[in-house]
Predict the structure.
Amino acid sequence: MPPSRRTVLALVAGALVASACGTHGTPIPNENTFAGVYTTTLRAASGGGERTMTLALNLDRSATLSTHFVGRDGEIVDRGTWSAVGHRLNLSLATTGGERAPQRLAFELRDDALAPVAWDRALWGESGPGTYRRK
């Protein structure tokens, strides 16, 4: 016996809901969901002290990563661009003054935090660039 129209509609509705959800069972965010200011604090593995990092993701897809070493004057500012697909944020940065080669990082949006999923281990080490929390 063929399925009833109600059964078919229920199956289609379930498929649509499932396709709109990411791997975490939550709806896939709009790209603008990522825009905002995030911070993290990292301790240097070599005992070099603490650094506070602020990542600003702007609606125009520009990005700024500011690094302030605790107890020191000034900060390092990297500028670049960002894009998002699903829960993944792709960040492309270049250091002002050309001191480093451009770097690419990828994060996953988890609640109001960006958790690193891909980075240059030679630059950031095995622990990565840290988890950034929305301010």
User: Anything to note?
Assistant: Residues 28-134 form a domain with the Lipocalin fold (CATH 2.40.128.360).
